[in-house]
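Handout, section 4.2: multi-component inputs.
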Amino acid sequence: MGGEEPAIHPVPGFRLGTACAGIRKPGRADLAVMEIAAGGSAAAVFTRNRFRAAPVRVAERHLAEGAPRYLLVNTGVANAGTGERGEADALACCRALAERAGCAPEAVVPFSTGVIGEPLPVDRVVGGLGPALAGLSEDGWAAAAAAIQTTDTRDKVASRQAALSGGTCTVTGMAKGAGMIRPDMATMLAFVATDAAVPDAVLDTALRRANERSFNRVTVDGDTSTNDACLLAASGAGPAVPAAGADLERFQAAVEAVCIDLARAIAADGEGATRLVDVAVQGARDTAEAERVAFTVAESPLVKTALAAGDPNWGRILAAVGRAGIADLDVAGVRLALGEQAVVADGGVVPGYDEAAAAAHLAGHEVRIGIDLGRGEAGATVWTCDLTAEYVRINAEYRT
Amino acid sequence: MGGEEPAIHPVPGFRLGTACAGIRKPGRADLAVMEIAAGGSAAAVFTRNRFRAAPVRVAERHLAEGAPRYLLVNTGVANAGTGERGEADALACCRALAERAGCAPEAVVPFSTGVIGEPLPVDRVVGGLGPALAGLSEDGWAAAAAAIQTTDTRDKVASRQAALSGGTCTVTGMAKGAGMIRPDMATMLAFVATDAAVPDAVLDTALRRANERSFNRVTVDGDTSTNDACLLAASGAGPAVPAAGADLERFQAAVEAVCIDLARAIAADGEGATRLVDVAVQGARDTAEAERVAFTVAESPLVKTALAAGDPNWGRILAAVGRAGIADLDVAGVRLALGEQAVVADGGVVPGYDEAAAAAHLAGHEVRIGIDLGRGEAGATVWTCDLTAEYVRINAEYRT
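Output:
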């Protein structure tokens, strides 16, 4: 992962450690701690699902206190749908880490992912804190990315550097997520760190802008998680980012590039997926309309199963566009392409359509569905994956 | 199919015939003709997908002319996404039937279902008209129901009789549909016939009311078809139905019962399905809210894969309720039951929850998910099915 810059750059001011806490299954790393140097700050966005998990509610309160020092992330159990006990359990874990690290409990920000409805095994989490803290390292990104996974099959880490006036700043992030993926203003779990010195308001805006164009445009199955969270932390050890100007733009671009790398990695690693699919809509009246069409196509089970078969079944794509809720859509103006191959225009298949060329494009691991609504200048790209029998197998057997 | 009254009652004034026209595959019945006695009438609702198939557009125009005499239905090719040629092809088939039957072309109402984007093989359809007309019979319902199927595995016919002041009236209907099922104001293909003498406005209202509570509450995969249509025809050979009163209520109840039978049969025969699922929402502020929650649960891939496994993974149901778009939902007031087993209340699992009892309920062929939002008096039930690897296989291989 990592686009043109595959290296993972450590971020001055951030250390990561992991542990095998045996939270749900023995012998796998399932706990990660990220340390933020004193003086750092963080911005975050969370799921809009009305059933928000206990750690989401606690994390939001703790971040509001300011001065976060540790992120505590466990996989295996989501601590969601656990009622009042859930919050008490999350707080107990924060207190235990705070005692060992010598900080306030509110400086610990908890995140959980995994099965919904089971209580968090607090003793096991606490048992993993010692090893995780003892192993803190600036080079711990890949290990931490592995320790927060559920049904993920690949580590998701992305990294960029940007040359600012005051020197080079680094942005490195990790994410997990493969199923129950349809973030709504926030996302699965993603943690992005920078050494830049960024005022709080700028950090918050940078995260929200990047999030809108990355994690908020990923869908694996249309199911929004109860535990989604995305956090951008800054240690301030590096160059300053002002509230406006070229340095801010370069910083924003680096954050956005890292988030898009991670978002695409999540779609590519969608449960059971064999293909990463870009659904690129243009010619829309506004961005909301473009997103609605792109998501409707990206979430259509019929489109996704055709993609699994590498079948250029464009009729299913048209049918999805047609039910996307644009009441006055003129279907004769809609154009459709698969990769470089034009498929539909003027309400029917284009003359000379080469189905073999379309099929060849769909046979690859990265697929592009291009849709031009022909009624405006706005566009949006949504990332998804194909729907395979393996998705069903994974999700029918997840708890067993 | 047929609920408490499994018999299929012929409807005076209606005859059905079929043919093996070889439209897409040889050796199977793929063409059905329904004859309506002179003086009959019909009401219909159609898909709201913006990409409406050519036969849908032609059918709507022909019905507006009044006096329908023949329904012409083919499977194999949907004649959708076929541009201007599509309408010309549909009209050519209507003209050919009109010539043979001695009626106006506008008295023939065309319907198509099958693959999108391929031209209708007019010659083959026309070749099947002779045999279909020669075989017209009042007892042709089951054969016709078989002849209009695509990936359906079972015939879908339902029948009721109602005792009216003027005598007994019959309502019999057939439907097809297993995939691309999420009707929006209309449905896959459903044809319901009655011998009652029903004024046009009453017939139209009866169909729309029944449709809202039956076909419009079915979802297999959330994909709205380009060819959905539901038609209610009356021959007038039987007793009269007035515009109000007890006879109208009895007639409406019979139509609704037939439509619900057919709607549930479609959900039960959802592609790859092993279970029929009732998602029953109550305690909503209004019907729209209840429907939104029920559809969100019924279309959640994670809920549907858990159902395929017979896994009472209630966390996924809660997560779906939580993302259904009710901004001010108090999650502590939500209650969830699987069959008779209470599962969730007060934001967590109920004391004494018996997971074995819930699993036993989910092991059956008919499953009930009960959701009480605890904020009002409205409710709605949506019918769906589980999501299996077989669904993926069917839809990945549909065109091959």
